[in-house]
Structure formats: structure tokens, C-alpha cells
## 1
Amino acid sequence: MKRILTIAAWSVLLAATGVGLAAVAIRVVQGLGVTNLNYIVPWGVWVAFYIYFIGLSAGSFLLSTMIYVFGFKKLEPIGRLALFSALIALIAGLNFVLLDLGHMERFWTVFVNRNMWSVLEIEIHFYVLYIAVLLAELWLLMRRDLIRCGQGSDWKAKLCKLMALGSRDTSEESGAKDIRRVRILGMLGVPIAIGVHGGTGALFAVVKARPMWYGPLFPIIFIVSALVSGAALLTFLLAFFAGRGMPKEQRDDLVLTLGKITAGLLAFDLLLMWSEFSVGFYGNIPEDIEVLRMMLFGPFWWVFWFVQIIFGAIIPLLLILLPASGKSPRWVGFAGLMIVIGIIGVRLNIVIPALSLPVLPGFDTAYTMLPAPSQTTLAYPPELLTWLTRLAVVAAVVSIVAFGVIGMRRLRGQPGHVFERALAGVGTVAAVLLLVFLIIRWTGQTTTTAAFNLGLTGLDLTHTPIGGILGRTELHSFYIPSPNEWLSSIGVIGLTILMFIIGYNILPLETKEGH
Amino acid sequence: MSQTQTIELAPETGAAESRRRFLGKFTSAVFAGLVAPAVMQLAHNDPVLADEVPAEEAPSPTAAARPAAGDVKPISGEQSVVDRMLDDLQRALKRRADGQNVRFGMAVDLQKCTGCRACTIACKAENMTPPEVSYNVVLEQEVGSYPNVKRTFMYKPCFHCENPPCTPVCPVGATYKREEDGIVVIDYDICIGCRYCLTACPYGSRFIDLGKTYTDPPQPYETSASPEYDESRVRAEGGSPVGNARKCHFCLQRIYRGMLPACTETCIGRAIHFGDLDDPDSVVAKLIAARSHIRLKEELGTEPNVYYLV
């Protein structure tokens, strides 16, 4: 059974990567014309994936500095893994930048044609320094193991020998020396990693043409969400794949610790997001608020509510913090995976909505109809909304009853029934949906005959400080990623996963004794 | 940084250039003949133009003789605003030839814009821009609610800001503001197509050439060489300017031959005025001095060089 699953997973990965790389080839030959990018939304999913992977990289690296610089010894077994995923994620991020260039063949000219005032140019320098630090740290940490594995005569030994770069000293003293060097490199690496992702945030933060991006909080949000994604990635990797050399108890304990760190960082990230949204809405500046509305209620509202909030934050937080699942490394690892995927939604929402608002009123209709379908606020039949609301109310009631029954049983010391738990779970999800639908309904879809308006539609909130949230203007999106954009992204991501698996199986990333 | 020096031809070198200039004058003279009464009407209301128009010399469109070669005279004795702008341009080019810097800019009279979009078409024809690239656009807005509704039109080229937010972000320095005339240009051979400048422009003045064509297979008008930057580029797959950012450059190839930008020359309402803002005698400088004006998004500190007369 396990064998079949493994074969299936490999075939899916290889097939998806193959198809994706074919799409990349088409994009390379035909140019940017295969995308749906346009003059209103010039950056799309590729840029979103670029900042996503740079974030994963910086996050993993900063986590590794907790071990080597700040002496958080408990995490030591995953130190090399963190550095290696940082390296692979960085390569993935840079691949996405390359894919996004109008003239891919000129990428190397960034080192020749210089403009030191460009944040992007400064970033490129940070990336180069960062790669150097990553490679040096990884090599120093693996050096003794590489020498050891280079003893044999098979191809792997030869490869190890090659990677050991002629170093032969396996003594304890040399190992201690390595660790000191890593510590120094890590100290250098902290500002560099902050530069790498804070700077990536600054790419956006300095653009005064886009009020949503422009602001001093943005680079900080980038760093915090980088830490979240890095910690979540390592939680997931350790829970399901890595750390096979460790004793089970140690590994489980480590997964739970990482899960707690992730949850704390995620909570802080949510706080920053709340600050951004609440201050933005209170300010009620049209250019700012339209973008926030685009995220919350625009054509791609579900990316925010379902991918970013429910899938990427609320459910994983509950999984980690609730005692029932929070003690199981598998559930915590799964929560890590959910966060890693949910952050994709965060990145998409950073790049696309801010651009979807035309810089000047009338600019979108000024001269041409864009070939990319311009999607307005979601169109659903009014009856559907009514019925979903009814269902959601019923489900919420059921869940409340179910929770009540479970609570009663607990009080009497009886174990809860599986059926009741399932009901409670489904009901909770439904109740959340109810909230979402009601919020959407507030935004102007009120022509429906409200079956359960709960008195909310009668409230006039348009003259309150948060009035802008309920603005009645239509929201357009001028960009829907083209099939090629998605397939190429899958190709690059598939390649990244393959690189990671190959590297993970060849390099001595895990060691029982540690340093 | 390799700057395009080929553009800086001395004005009126070669027979072809002077012929083009002559034809330009000829068409504007004929045009002036057709709308002379209307122009007079406007001129009387226009404080800048009125002082140049002697009232007694009433125009008689019928008297417009067929101009002989080398003898293009304004129909009614007064100089049309186009002729004055051409003279302004000659003075600016002379200053440039003397090694002085100029600052090209525009004054757009919103009262005179009719929303015909001839400027957009003229620009497309001149610079041979592909779909989804238009160096100027006319923003149209409906103001008020029925029955008190009106539409407003706003011609919008690149503003060639004094502090352009689009140039510092370029990672390869492919786009820059020219010291000598204040025009923001793009070096197509350096631009890597990252589109950072598209996001950084607060006015939507930059476009990405996605390699699209209006016709499939592309017709000769799409595949012939473009006069842009005097580089005679042919849009072909993979080669610049495909994959590059593109923008308005005040028709560099025209102004250094003594011709007005295509949009300015073609504007039927004479809403667009072009010239050297640093020359106090130029039409643009006088209009800006005399009329109340606005610039878009001044709070960003970009200091646009295109003024809207309101």
C-alpha cells in the first residue's frame, strides 16, 4: 500500500513538473505574450511566487540562526535542513524572477548596468551575499560528514569527496572551529537575511504610486510572515519527512516546539495584518480602501477568506493550540503544511489587488478593452446566497447543540461520541461560512430578499468611520492568470521539490550525534 | 551609460527634413484656413494669444492664396499657435545647439479638449505602438448624476516629471531623465523587462510591449521600422522593443527635426501646447503664467512638467 502511494506521488510530481517545464519552454520562446499581464496589472502570480519563496528562504535561514547564533540548542538537529531549504527556496524565488523578465537573456546585465538607487539592484546584492553565506555555512556544517562519506569508491563517495573540496581534517578541534566560523557567518547572515526579505518588502514599500504598498510597516510585515512560513515549512518537513535519524520522542518533541513557535509568529503576523486593515479602513482614503475592499470582497475574495484566513491561519492555529490535536506531531506538521500553502494567498494578495486599482480614474477604459477578462465582483444567483445562508444558520445551530452535548458529557466524565465531534466540527466551519456570507452581503449584494437578515442589512454603517468598507462601487480585476502562468509556476515548483529531494538524499543533512 | 546620441541631429539637416518641415507648415496653414474664424474667436478670449492678434486685420478665409514653395505665410497675418510653437521649438533647439539645457513640457487646455482621441491615434501612427501600448490616452469621466451630467476629457501623455518615481527603481538604469531637455527615455537595449517602472509610475504612463500585433499575420504597417529614438527598430519576436517597457518621449525623433510631437500637431481643438518651459517667451510658459492650472497628484512631489489649464 505504502509502495503504491509512493509510486503515485512520484508519478504525479514528475508528470506535473514535465508539463510545467513544457509551459516554461513555451513562455521562453513566445515571450510575455503568453501571460495575461497588462499595463494595469504588470505583475502577477510569478512575482507573488517570487516573494513567497524568498520569504520561505529568509524564514528558514533566520530560524537556523536561532541555533548557531543565539544558541537555541534544542533545534540543532534541523539546522542543516533549515539552511538547505533556505538555499533551495532562494533558487526557486530567483527562478521566478527570471521567468518574469521581459528579456530573460539579459538577466546577467544587472551586474554590469548599475543603478545603486534601485531597491531591486540593492536586493540583487543581498541575494548574492546571502547565497554565499548559505553555501559557506552549509559546507562548514557538512564538512566532516562529507569527508567521512568520501571514504568509499562508489559514485556517491566520489561526489562527497568532490564536495569536501580537498579538506581532510576530521578531528574534533576542527569541528569546533567550524562551529565558531558558522557562528560568525550566522551573525553576518542575520542582517543579510533581514535585508533579503525586508528589502523584498521595501521593493513594494517604496512605491508611492500604490498607496496600499507605500508605508513603513510593509518591510516588517514581510519579515514576520517570512518567519511564519519558514517555521511552518520546517515543522511540516520534520513531522513527515526529515529527522529519521533522531529518536522518535526527540523528533516529536521538536515538532511540537516548532509548532508553538510557528503559532506565536502567526499570531503576531495576524496582529500586523489587523493593524494594516483597521487603520486603512478608519483612514478611509479612497485609493487605500478600494484595494482593501478588493482583497476582502473583490472578484477573488475567496483567496483572502478561504486560503489566507481560514485555511492558512485559523484552522492551523486551532490545530496547534487545541489540546486534542496539539499533542500529535502529525496534526501539528499538517498545520505547518496548511500555513505554508496559505501564505501563497497572502503573497497573491500583496501583489495583485494593489495593482488592480487603476492609477487614475478612467485609465482602464481610456483606450482599449483589455484582452484579459476583466472580472467584476462575483456574480452568483441571489437564491444561492439565501440558501447558503439558511444552511449555514442551521449548521451553526447544530454545532452549538453538538458542542453543548459534548460539554455535558465531559462534565459527567464520559468520552464524547465521534458523531457529535464531527457534527460540532462541521457546524463550526458552517458558522464561519455564515459570517463570511453575511459580510459579503453587506457589501452591496442586498437586492436579495433576505431570509435571515438578522437585522444586519437594516444597519446603516455607511456614515461611520468604517463607512468605506461598505462602499458601493463595483470592483474590477484586470488580471486572471493565464493557463501558462499557472503551468509554468507548477513547473518551477516541481523542479524545486525535485531539487530538494535529490539534495536531501545525497547530502549529509542529518547526523545523529550533531556537533 | 550609453545615451542615444543619434537623436541630436542639428535641426533641418538634409533636404528630406526641410521638406517634412515645409509639409508640416503647409498642412497647418491649410488647416488654419479652414478654422480661422473659430481660432480668431478663441484668440480673442485668450489673454496670451490676444495680444498677438491685431483686431483690424480681420481674416478672410477666401483670400487664402495657394502658398508657393518657400513662401508659407500665415493666412490672416497673425501667427497661428502652431507656428508660434514651431518658433518656440526652433529657439529651444538653438539653445540646445549652444549647449544650454532646456525643459520640454506641455500645457493642456482642458476647456478645449473635445475627447476626439486624435492625439492617441496620431501617436500610434507615429511611434507604431502595438496593442496595449499607448503613449498617451484620453481619460474620460462622467461627472454628476442625471440630468446634471457631463463628460470630462483629459489628454494624458507622460508627464516627464522633475522627480520621476519611475527612474530610480530601474535595476539596470535603463530609464533616465535626460539632463539636456528633461525628457524621460528608455534604452531598449538595456531594459530587462522587469516592469518595476510600470508599478512605480503614479500616472500609468508606462506600458509593457507584450509582443502582440493588431493583425495576424502582422500587416506591413506593424512590421516596418519605427522612427522611435531614430533607431529604426522592427518589432520582431524576442527582440527589443518587444519585452521592454515603453513610454512617451515627446516624439524625440520629431522635435529634434523641428517638428512638434505628433499629438500636439494633430490636436483639432489646439488643446495641447508643447514647448520649452524655461523659455519665458514660449507659448507654454506664457499660458502657464497667465492661466490657473493644476498638475496631477502634486502631493507625491513628482513635479510633473505637464500642466493642465483649467
## 2
Amino acid sequence: MSQAVSAVSATSGIELRDLGQSYILRDAGKKSEFVALAHFNLQIKAGEFVAIVGPSGCGKSTLLDIVSGLAKPKQGEILIDGRTVSGPDLDRGFIMQGYALFPWRTVRKNVEYGLEVKGVPKRERPEICRHFIHMVGLSGFENRYPNQLSGGMRQRVAIARALAFDPKILLMDEPFAAVDAQTRETLQDELMQIWAKTGKTVLFVTHSIDEAVLLADRVVVMGTRPGRVYQTLAIDLPRPRTAAGMRVSAEFGWITRKVWELLQEGQGYMTPETTPKTSVSDVAEQISAQVSL
Amino acid sequence: MFKKLALRSGRAVYKIAAIILFLVLWEIAARFHLLVSATFLPPFSKVITVLYHMALSGELWRHASISLQRSLIGFTCGMLFAVPLGLAIGWFQKLGNFLSPLLQVFRNMPTLALLPVFVMFFGIGELSKVMVIFWGVLWAVLLNTIAGVQDVDPQLIKAARSMGTSSLRLFATVVLPASLPFIFTGMRISATTSILILIAAEMVGASRGLGYALYFYQGNMKIPEMYGYIIVMAILGVVLNYVLEALERRNFRWRDAGGIASE
């Protein structure tokens, strides 16, 4: 499947070149290879917000682990600003679903962690922390421990922690999947504001179609077995967007429907016997004709 | 103000009501020879009087101080050895796999059964007593430390690693603080164990110490004095545990839920 967006300069943003990842599975003594990702190509412009949607087990998280530098790909390479990524670094901030806050550190000390790693002088840290804690709306909670915060607040701390050391890229792995629906909408709106303010490049992984369409400039639909780019869609809904505003937008409805169709197709790609492929893609074609994506 | 004070003292009385009841029953049983002869069970009041005199004469302190000294040295050495070893075993999986069968064998040997061995190796002086305490306190701390390191939330390691944290920093800023509550729990268990082992060690070969005193008075049929030392040991254990628990609560406040703030 070709990509919907023309190539961007390799000197900015992220370029994923032909990424492949596989694991050896041992089942009852028999070894088999599980291909998590294959020939994954994607180019992300500097400052772009890209959301990746795919069903569970499609290799979304594997992809983020590779981009973060925590996992080495079996094949292919990642370029950030034209340079090959060899491991984790402070140019990327990783935000996980489970918050992963250090429970023995207060909010402020959590946000400070990356600054310590970066070697920011001690006297400069409080000001930076204050700035980002304020940005995520947690002023006044600096001295709380994570277990004294609600899920939504914890995720805000995680966002502040990732922003504090000023990475160029934010990698977000289903960051709002664990919070309740109302909090999620608030966090989504806030994330969009923060993104507009900071201009970070965002690679956002989610299994929620609505979330992907709401947040992103571009949605990458992943296909399964093996995980790969099935199709990418540019979302040209006007900004600023809000979760509440999108809910009543007909256009938003059409696009999410389209993404849903593509997801169905992408999953059925390798197993035609399980999915009535023709009928679904017929519908998809009809809809895409109507929406003129 | 007065009402509050009354309420608080009422609560305190309730907390120790069972102990008071037990002591009253002891007193009654001893005075009316309900269980055994008065020779074997003197009344609590008599034990306390004897204890008071022993405390005044300085005899109690003479025995207690040497016991505390042995305990403290053995315990400290044990911690200095067990915590780094436990951290290493927990962190380096291969080392853990290599050592754990041996550790399991050692751990399951009753410490007191090894007492004669320690006496043969280190003589009947201070060293053998300190060594047996050292041995006895190792295991709870060692195993808790290993468990603590292995229990570190992989997400936290992932979060730290994603920022390009070096292994040394990762260990110091994530693995160690995450293991500390486990290590402390191990220390609390070990501290109580150290007293237990000490008493037994002193009963075997010593000329001073709480265990020796207990054994001495039993041998000389000075039963109230014997009970006096038993009470001292019980108090020692309770106080130690209380202090360590208080320290634990203070240092690991981040562990208990506290008041959850809302959005």
C-alpha cells in the first residue's frame, strides 16, 4: 500500500525506513517466528501530529519501543533529523499508558527526573518544573506523591515529566486508555493545546479511532500479521479542535467511519476467509467517495 | 479539652486491655495456686519488685548492655553484607541463578543447629555470638532485598531508560529506592530474629548477657528473677518492633494511599 503523503525532507522529523521486528516463540518445544512488524515505512514532518491506530497485537507498541530506542529493530532504521537512532535519548519523550511515575518522588521530583539525567543545573530546575507543572494544570500539587493523585492527574505529571527536558518528539503509547471517558476528553483537549504551544512532533499510538481522528494531522492505519502501514489518511479538520466539538461534527463522523472501514480491511488483509472483504471495501469506497477524502 | 483527653486515654486503655487482663489473671492464678505451685509461678507483682531491684543494682543493665552490643554488631555486619549481596543477586540474573540453590540450602538450616559449629570455628568468646547473629539476620534481609530488586515495576525502568539513563543512574535512582521498602521490612524481621538468636546463643556459653542471666536464675531456682528477664526480653522485642515500624511508616509515606486528590 503506498503512502498518502509525499516524502518530506529527511533532515527534519522522523523517518522510519523499512522497519521489521520479529520474535522467536517457543511453544511446547517448537520454535516459531512471530513477525511483529514488516516493511514499516513512515515519514513524519517536524511538528506534525501523527496518530497510529490498529487493533491490539498489531505491533503498535513494538513500533514505539523501537522509535524510542528501547528495542532494536531486526531490520531497517530510524532517522531523526537525518541521523540514525542508536538508542534512547533525551530528544524523545516517552509517555506510557501506565503513567510509570516514580512513586517515591513527589510531583515536582518526578518532573525533575529528566532534568537530572540531562544535567540541568540544580538552581535552574525548580523554574522549569514550575513552568511545566503549571502547563498541565497541576500547580499546587507539586509536593504530592503519585498515589495521592487521580489517574488523570498522574498522566498529566507524566506529560509534564516528558516535556520538562524539552525533547523534540513525544512518543505516546495509549496514554489515555486507563482514565475514565470524561477525564480522557479533558486530557485530549489539553494535549492539543500543549502541542499547539510547544510545537513538538508527536507520534501517538491508540486503539481508539475517535481519539486518533480528533488529535492527529494524519492517521496511520495499521494492518495486522505482520504489523505494517495499511494506509495513511490526512485529517484536515480545522483546528483548534475540541473533543466536545468533534462529537457533533458530521465530517468527524464520516472520517472515523472511514478509518474504521480501513481498519477492518487491514485486519482482513492476510485472512480473507474470516472477513467478508469485498462487501466491507465496497462500503468503504462508497463512503470515501461521499466524503472525498 | 478535658473530654478529648478522657477519650484519648480511654482508647489507650482499650489498646492494652488484653495485656492488663492477662497480668491480672497471672496475679490471681499465682496467688491462689490455680495452675502450678507458687515456686514455679510467682505472682506478677513479685516479679516486678524483683525486676525493680535488679534494675536499681545495675545488674539488669550489665546484662542488657552486653546483649544489645552483640546484637547490634551482628545485626550491622549482617546488613552490610546482605543488602549489597541481595542487590547484586537481584540485579544480575545469572549471579542469582548461580547462587540461589546454595542460598536455599543455607537459609533452611536452623541457625541454632549451627551454634556448635560456630563455637568450634570461633571459640566461646564474643566472636562466635556475633557470628551466629550475623548468620541469623542475613536471610530475611537477603531474600527481601532480592525480591525488592526483582519486583521493581518494569514500566519504571522503561520510563527511566527511555530518557537515556545510564545503568548506574538507573540503579541508584530507580532500582534502589524501589527496593528500599522491601529491604526495610527484611531488616525489621531480622532485628527481632537477632534478639531471639542472641538469647539462645547466650544460654549456651556466656558469662554475661540476658540469655545467660535467664539460664543462670533458672539453674539456681530463682524463679521470680527468671520471669523478670523474660519480661525484659519481651519488652525489648516489642519496643524494637515498634520503633522500626514507626521508622518504616515515616520513610515510606509514598507507599500508603493517603487522600486521593480529585480532578
